[in-house]
Amino acid sequence: MNADVLIIGGGIQGCSTAYHLARSGASVIVLEKDYIARHASGVNAGGVRLLGRDLAEMPLSKASMEMWQLLDDILEEDTGFRQKSVINIAVDEVDIATLKARDKKMQALGHSHERMIDQAELREILPHVHASCVGGAVSDMDGYALPYQATNAFRRAARRFGARFIEGQALNHLRQIGPVWIARTQDKTYEASTVVNCAGAWADQVAMQIGDNVPLSHAAPMLMITARLPHFTGPVVGAVSRQLSFKQFENGTVLIGGGAKGFADRANNTTRLDYAKLARAAKTAIEFFPIMRSASINRMWAGLEAYMPDNLPVISPAANADNAFHAFGFSAHGFQMGPIVGKVMADLVLTGKSDFDLSAFRIDRYDRKTL
Amino acid sequence: MTYDCVIVGAGPAGMSAAIELANAGARVLVLDRAPRAGGQIFRSAANSPLSDSGALGTDYTAGSKLIERFEASNAEHLSEADVWHVGEDGTVLYTQDGIPRTVQTREILLCPGAMERPMPIPGWTLPGVMTAGAAQVMLKSDAMVAERAIFAGSGPLLYLIVAQYLRLGVKVAALVDTTPRRNYLTSLPKVPGALRSWPMMFKGLGMMREIASSGIPVFKGASNLRVLGQDMATGLEFGCREQQRVMSNHVFLHHGVIPHSNISRSLGLSHIWNAAQHCWQVQTDAWGQSSVPHVSVAGDGAGIIGADAAQSAGRLTALNILKRLGRLTPAERDRKASEDHAVLAKMAPFRAFIDQLYGPSKCLCLPQQADTIVCRCEERRLQDLKEGFEQGARDPNALKSLTRCGMGPCQGRQCGPIVSSLLADWRQEPEAQVGYYRLRSPQRLLSLEELSRFQSRPRGGAE
């Protein structure tokens, strides 16, 4: 099977890239070893936030946020996106100082979407938050979406423009012969002039076959969700110095995360949970929201996610091959960037350049001379 | 201190295994949710609230002997211990008296037993509709019965509860038997083999005669079942030569049992599709050993075999665990095992006959109408799933992610088997290819506070 572009990995980056390429008239094949959104893209917390972003990501993240606001209309699909305030809670003066320092930097760069709130406003927005919390930062244009549904929305839209999605076939071997990339799975061969590596937690293995070494690691952030509760909180909540992330969906279930990590078993395509850490996350959730004490946990899970040492993604042409590109290593905050990253990758593939400064995301940023 | 073996479930398999292990000197802990050992089949057999539990049959009363032997053994037994996580690292988490606890064990033996096969006919989720097994639980543990109830479906357990009701003098509105008529023919070749277990054959036939001679309306070969009623069940409509209606506020459904596999699934053990029994079951060898060597599964939870065979299977699994613990040589294990292996071999043809005779009809396993609920927790209907499938979710987990089917508190216990078979039907592929939900702990709803009190330091055996 042949195409102009072969995308390895059917997560949100792969599906979004497929959509933007196919819409521009390129023929696209997406090769996915499981089914689309099987790992990080399908089981993440669905956070769509600008709040607290690394400054290097800010231009991309802002552009992505603008796309999210219109995404359902653009894709003619339901991504489950809901605009909600996102709040970062400060528990003490040290947290306040951290927020103030960031606020100063943001203002200097001309970013105005985050604003600091005092204790009174915090109580007003979050009536059930523990009385000891002293303030926080809030971003009002943020929100959340439904991860699998949003990724599938890109897939469906891409398919309408002719993109082909091959699920359940793992890449066994990838090589470039002259102008052609040849990808082999267990029983099929695919050929394309360009390859895009969106393989998430497996992207270092794909990068190696392209010719690029990259210090990627993987981990298994854990989440838990409660049975339905009466509605008690609107905004999405995090904490400056504590492992807490918290949101109540429209159906009343409350998702509790915070970055506690389980065990990533990449070789077996699975994860295991660390119950002691989940217990601590439960404790933290109760400390911030005592009303949650008697809430029932319905499910707990973890997803396999890829991390770069600096927690910034790789969005980059290959360093050691032509007509190959990378988009991976989003380090547990890539879901929000999916819409814009697909656009950037399509631009890179089709024109060789992007409107954004991608220098912080080069794949070879860890290559350096040793003495 | 840790345990040699933790057994989850104190039914016939778990109790038999515990006795065998404890007698050989192994440190055994049995965790069970019920106040008293016995499992579903021998629930309250040792402390029946009924003035004459003889009406429940001699098989049931015989259960109290096993319970007594188990309770007299050196196996440690924690009742009302609700297991919510079993880890392949040998960690078992459970809650007792609201406090989460941990134990560690070299060997894990799961004896989760069976659950009733879901029967998604129109109206199956209406108040007043229960499973026949639930009717039996009420009878065994609380001596409660429902007057003038309809029993619908097929299989030994359905007839047993009807016979028990009749013996207790409870009025039964009707037995609506869905056993396809052709099954009587297709199961004939298996009769000679089944006759090797002739006492069981006779017991079954006796039960059928008891029902036939009681005079209650019996409708054979019934199909197209629909529970009547808007807000609660008012009766059952079905085809049996012509359209029939029986009115009642109690409808008990049953068409066979399937292994309870939520724990073995959460553990990530390999499962296989058993075409003869039309259900998923955990993959085990002849000794009950799963794809994870230190995890074994015995009894109906490893494939439906019935309470008698479960006792043999429990003992065999225990012997193998003793071998793994170094307490028996392979030769000793094999010698001690020969009798139970023979018992199982003798019973197998009878089970094959029952499986053939009462094999569930496809139209009762799969919802037939677009608005029939598949996922009770999230109220997802056949049409919702079909739509999700057409949107590209071809895998049970993708379908779950997209439609929320299976995300509720029952952890997909009810809709899981239905979704596997629906996708198999739509994809025109066998269930084995389609797969099943990826399940995770907790096995039951767990309060945030309960979890927050969990500490990883294991509970010592000597406490």
Write the layout of secondary structure elements.
The complex is a heterodimer of chains A (371) and B (463).
Chain A: E1 2-8, H1 12-23, E2 28-32, H2 40-43, E3 47-48, H3 58-75, E4 82-83, E5 86-90, H4 93-108, E6 114-118, H5 119-125, E7 135-139, E8 143-144, H6 147-160, E9 164-167, E10 173-177, E11 180-184, E12 189-197, H7 203-210, E13 217-219, E14 222-226, E15 236-239, E16 245-248, E17 254-257, E18 263-265, E19 270-272, H8 275-288, E20 296-302, E21 305-307, E22 314-317, E23 324-328, H9 338-351
Parallel strand pairs in A: 1-2, 1-12, 2-9, 5-15, 12-23
Antiparallel strand pairs in A: 3-8, 4-8, 5-7, 6-7, 10-11, 11-12, 13-21, 14-17, 14-20, 15-16, 16-17, 18-19, 22-23
Helix pairs in contact in A: 1-6, 1-9, 3-9
Chain B: E1 3-8, H1 12-23, E2 28-31, H2 58-72, E3 76-78, E4 82-86, E5 91-96, E6 99-110, E7 114-116, E8 129-131, H3 132-142, E9 149-154, H4 156-167, E10 172-177, H5 181-186, H6 191-194, H7 198-214, E11 218-219, E12 223-228, E13 235-240, E14 242-247, E15 251-255, E16 257-259, H8 262-266, E17 271-274, E18 279-282, E19 295-297, H9 307-324, H10 330-357, H11 362-365, E20 373-375, E21 380-381, H12 382-390, H13 396-403, H14 415-427, H15 431-434, E22 446-447, H16 448-452
Features:
heterodimer; A: 371 residues; alpha+beta; FAD/NAD(P)-binding domain; D-Amino Acid Oxidase, Chain A, domain 2; 2 domains; eight-stranded mixed β-sheet; 23 strands; 27% strand; B: 463 residues; alpha/beta; seven-stranded mixed β-sheet; five-stranded parallel β-sheet; 22 strands; 37% helix; 22% strand; globular
